[in-house]
Amino acid sequence: MKRLALVTGGVTGIGAAICQALKVAGYSVVANYYGNDAQATDFSHTHDVPVYAWDVSDLDACTKAAAEIVSRHGPIDILVNNAGITRDAMLHKMTAEQWRMVIDVDLGGCFNMCRTVIETMRERQFGRIVNISSVNALSGQAGQTNYAAAKAGVIGFTKALALEGASRGITVNAIAPGYTDTAMVAAVRPDILKSIIDGVPAKRLATPEEIARGVVFLVSDDAGFITGETLSINGGKYLQ
Ligand code: CAA
């Protein structure tokens, strides 16, 4: 029986690449999304990945959606917390709403989804959790106090949950992607983005597929002794 992977934010950008890479690697995959129904339906048909809409910042919604997924597809073996948003602003211009939204989705969503699946993973003595963080959690980034805080929180969360899960066959790891060729990064002002890419030793953006390959490794049996780690995939940014 194929293992079942749930990828949040799974129909666009890095999440879509993760879904496709996990399918190619032989997993059953379901994707969460929130927002564009037409785009999600199109992705679902093209890639044969069932899609489910809910807001990961809402714990009740996570619980209900996971119950439906389990009843239709079986227990969730692999959780990839990829859903994330940005609301960039310098702190002196940041609103409480911009702060709250990013913390609630990027960090709160990680708690909500892990809380939803963890009891069953403990009972079944198996689980793989990969949380998508960011290079900017490690390096900081002007204009992203909210995002850097949330994504750094994800790394601490990952380490703590790894300690809790290790004796139950559950590994919990993070990936810290560098700037990746997605709509989120394309939204950065072109002159700012150019200076960021100029500062990447590899002098280019990551492809979503390069991030997805890290996920495929971390959820594999080969990675069963790796837990609590953060894998940087960033073309050398933050080495300097
Ligand atoms: N370091 C220090 N100061 C900086 C700075 C930097 N990197 N960038 C800008 N500043 C300063 C400017 O010099 C300016 O200073 P003064 O007011 O004294 O002149 C001040 O900050 C305001 O700069 P902006 O004109 O850019 O301000 P803005 O309000 O128009 O824009 C911003 C602010 C939206 C945050 C914009 O700077 C921005 O988009 N920055 C990039 C943020 C970024 O990298 N986001 C990543 C999104 S993708 C992602 O998050 C995925 C991932 O994981 C990597």
From TrEMBL:
GO annotations of cellular component type: cytoplasm
UniProt cross-references to SMART domains, sorted A to Z: PKS_KR (SM00822)
Stretches assigned to the Ketoreductase domain: 3-178
UniProt keyword annotation of Oxidoreductase present: yes
Broadest EC class assigned to this enzyme: oxidoreductase
Source domain of life: Bacteria
InterPro entries linked: Acetoacetyl-CoA_reductase (IPR011283), KR_dom (IPR057326), NAD(P)-bd_dom_sf (IPR036291), Sc_DH/Rdtase_CS (IPR020904), SDR (IPR050259), SDR_fam (IPR002347)
Pfam family, one: adh_short_C2
BP GO terms, sorted: monocarboxylic acid metabolic process; poly-hydroxybutyrate biosynthetic process
EC number of this enzyme: 1.1.1.36
GO molecular function, one term: acetoacetyl-CoA reductase activity
Keywords: Oxidoreductase
Gene3D superfamilies with a match to the protein in the record: NAD(P)-binding Rossmann-like Domain (3.40.50.720)
Protein name in the entry: Acetoacetyl-CoA reductase
